[in-house]
Amino acid sequence: MGNMIIDGQIVEFNEEKNILAVIRKAGIELPTFCYHSELSVYGACRMCMVEDKWGSTLTSCSTPPKDGMEVWTNTEKLKKHRKMILELLLANHDRDCTTCEKSGRCKLQEIALKVGVKKIRFGQEKKEMPVDDLGPSIVRNPNKCILCGDCVRACQEIQGVGVLDFAYRGSKLQVTTAFNKALHQVDCVNCGQCRVVCPTGALMIKKDMDRAYEALQDKNKRVIAQIAPAVRVAIGEEFGMEPGAITMGKIVAALRKLGFDQIFDTAVGADLTVIEEAEELMDRIQNRDKLPLFSSCCPAWFKYAEQKHPELMDNVSSCRSPQQMFGVVIKEQFKKLYKDDRKENIVIAIMPCTAKKFEAARPENKTGGIPDVDMVITTQELAIMIQENGIVFNELEDEALDMPFGFTSGAGVIFGVSGGVSEAVLRYYYKERTAAVLQGISYSGVRGMEGVKEATAEIDGQKVRIGVAHGLKNAENLIKKILRGEEKFDFVEVMACPGGCVGGAGQPIPQNNDVRRKRARGIYKVDTASPIKRSEDNPAIEALYEGVLKSNREILHRHHK
Amino acid sequence: MKINNLKELKAFSAKSTNALDNQKKKVLVCAGTGCVAGGSIEIYNRIRELIDAHELLVDLELDYEKEGIGVKKSGCHGFCEMGPLVRIEPENYLYLRVQFEDCVEIVEKTLINNEPIERLMYSAENRIYKAQEDIPFYHKQTRMVLKNCGSINAESFAEYVAKGGYEALSKVLFEMKPDEVCQSIIDSNLRGRGGGGYPAGRKWAQVLRQDSEVKYVVCNGDEGDPGAFMDRSIMEGDPHGVIEGMLIAGYATKSTAGYIYVRAEYPLAVERLRIAIEDARKHGLLGKNILNSGFSFDININKGAGAFVCGEGSALTASIEGERGMPRVKPPRTVEKGLWQKPTVLNNVETFANVPLIIKNGSSWFKGIGPENSPGTKAFAITGNVNNTGLIEVPMGTTLREVIFDIGGGIKDGKKFKAVQIGGPSGGCLTEEHLDLPLDFDSLKKVGAMIGSGGLVVMDEDTCMVEVARFFMNFTQNESCGKCVPCREGTKRMLEILEKIVEGKGTVGDLDLLEELADTISSTALCGLGKSAASPVASTLKHFRKEYVEHVVDKKCVTHTCKALGSIVIEKEKCKGCSKCARLCPVQAIVGKVKEPYTINPDKCIKCGACIEACAFKAIKEA
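Predict the joint structure of the above. Result:
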């Protein structure tokens, strides 16, 4: 608590950890490349420098506020240094702005414009390092890297995976993987949080739009979309809407315009997951066998578990993810429904996630050599497709989903936010259908943005302990406690991205806790508005269990190996 | 044999002193890195062998009663230019450039018959200097920290104790409280010898105040400046002095463990420290409950992996932790959160080596040496175009003139003094006008230079200052960790410009751009090394701007250092037309008719200089 003097104005500070936060609170936008409120302070880009009353320069990101402290943010000296630093960064940068995918969203471009670099007095050297586009999820282009280290810290601090780090010294410095291997050859879990924080085009989503266009134009293909819950509360941001704005009807309308034949909601897949996973859990609790049960719907978490905790794989649910359950079910259903036509059924999943691309390509997610989900398009890619095709998103009239999977439950939709799987499973257990019960569950501790959440529920006189973690670093801490016997859970839900799927790397940027919270609020709004709250109450589900799944339920499970 | 308490230490000391006295003659063969490279180990072995043949050899640790001659491997004597060095006590003869073949004579003449060998002694202006302390190189020095270097066996615990070693430790353990120890270091005003000059005692007191069960003492032995070897010599020559200093710091700050971070390029220092730590442990001066005082402390050695930047405090601690050595932003400072996030005392080798002396002799004794604000002595490694290169120690406040001309013996080959680079790649250059400047922290700061860790590179009139700046910038660019933009990209661009200038492609605008870059780097770089990375360029630009202008405007390098700027010409009058040069020229740039003067085509000439060397009539020269 105290007062600072910023550019001559008195500004009060409270909990702010650094003067940069106080300066921004005062309405002054200092440029930064390496500062992220959710990552550790790094202090390498030197853009946020301010001048104190003795004329020394200090980085505002790393200096805690002090009562009576006096700083200037925009003296001539500071402007000169900022320009020089940017000039140095740009001199070394691949300046193919017009053809760069990041153009318009690039922080380097934006800040260079703001700071006003007019000329670069140093010779440009064309870096020609190989671009890593061999993996399914992320493309890494070291030629566009400005070495701010954001990805290194995101991978280490949020996920505890740490596949990226610095190598070499001086101007030869690089961010790279161990032995400069491709990302798919190292322990990268494809979560894409690195690309969420990357200010330039050095880390990008691997795009599958061309494959989607190809399928959409092919008369011999029936293209079926499934839209994940988190997409509907985020895509609007690409079109100037607030985070959390619910745009499902517009997405459906846009997809029809793009030529999709059938459009469904992945929440139906989530409903199937709820039922399968809840029963698997009940079974294990009754037999006191292989507890806790870990959720399996996040593909980044699943890969992490395989790599880091092979000893826990028996504890990870055998359920396929909602995307994969739904993919396999649609294809089964349509095989029967359209058994006389020759059209090939193509399932395209619209996902908030980069790891889903990897999941869809896993060999165990194929039937007879054909993927159950043919391709995955992220929220951002869909937004680009909408723009590329001249569709004015904001003016679209809402349209409804197709039948027979046009119904969804609130339980299926809340999968899109951390704690949602647990909440949906709990709803399945409580047979009493009152609003009070639902509210009780929502207040049990599963909701919110804390990294690790705990809840206890009583089901048929039996106490069930649930742990919820988002961010793999948080999950690892929880697992360590479980392995040391300090914590005991029956069910543990893990989502790799902060906030769950709403914070996925396929979503629009920028992302921060505030944005994720607003998106989560949107998800809960959809749930509140939904007439069906429980997965098992979804009529589409009942039809499936009576139909294609009747003697074929094991297609919903994977065989870990 | 473990020494369990103060009484036993005193008894051990008395016994060792007696044994040392029994060595009626002592031969100290310099086993510093320079002399070892010159073959001093073979000399040492040979002298031992010869003395043993006379049955006169006594080793301190092996025979405490027998009288005879001691032969020891000592640390660096400092007069590296003249190595390998052999010192004979009690006469204090210093034999220079000793060869293996001289050993027999040394033993027979000097050790058996007490005769000096004059041909091995230092001589100048028809005078032969018998005693080491009379030699001008030593005469003006005050060797305190380096006292043991060259006068004791660097690998002997007993000898260190015999010379009063670990007395300071026992004094603090049994007569002083931790805060009193901090206070006496504060009172002495000992300032960090690593370059920063921060008062060591204040640092210790801050660590003592930290509320933490675990605290560390870290010794910075990552001396990376080109041409600097002060700390190396101390670690090689008096390792116990460093250990004792760290033990006292540990007691003063209530720390329990210490780390010495040494460059892996200093294998001898690592080895001597390892032996010293093992000996101290064996004798109970490291470990649990030292001398039954209740104080426990142990020391580990960490070898650096060859990064200059690891000499920066936070990069050094990161490196010990097994992380990439990159400086981090402060706060928190190392005294609050240093090694493994614990409060940490981080001082350099020379600072720790001063500590036992201050404790033993008192703060006011220390303050009496040198100027009040920078008391004590400072070790310097003096290299470059100077007659006596080597390791010296002088009171702070000694002038550059005394160091370069009295101790260093002036400029080589009678040339003119031009400048001295002080403080390594982080420092700046000083010129003729600064020769009477006292060498201390504050005076140097005033003229934009710094003492740094103590490297002095002396340059004569034939040195091109632009090339010097390019050399240091090349070093800094290679050694930048690459973390912050100004240091990583800025030094790269400065180097690029300097390379352009020495190649004759510079412009006047480049000089302004260099200054602009230097300003941004020094104001915005993350760590101290980054902030000072541009200093060699900034200071040469300030003091030798004329030379830069000559390079970019006149395209001329007066010292003929920058080959691209010079041209080679044949003097018509002297050329006899022998055609030797034309035949030798690798690019056929020389043309002419036999018996008539030849000419050089400047467009073809690559300035290799082969023709100059070949010409028998000295007709070809650089213009």
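Chain A has a mean pLDDT of 93.
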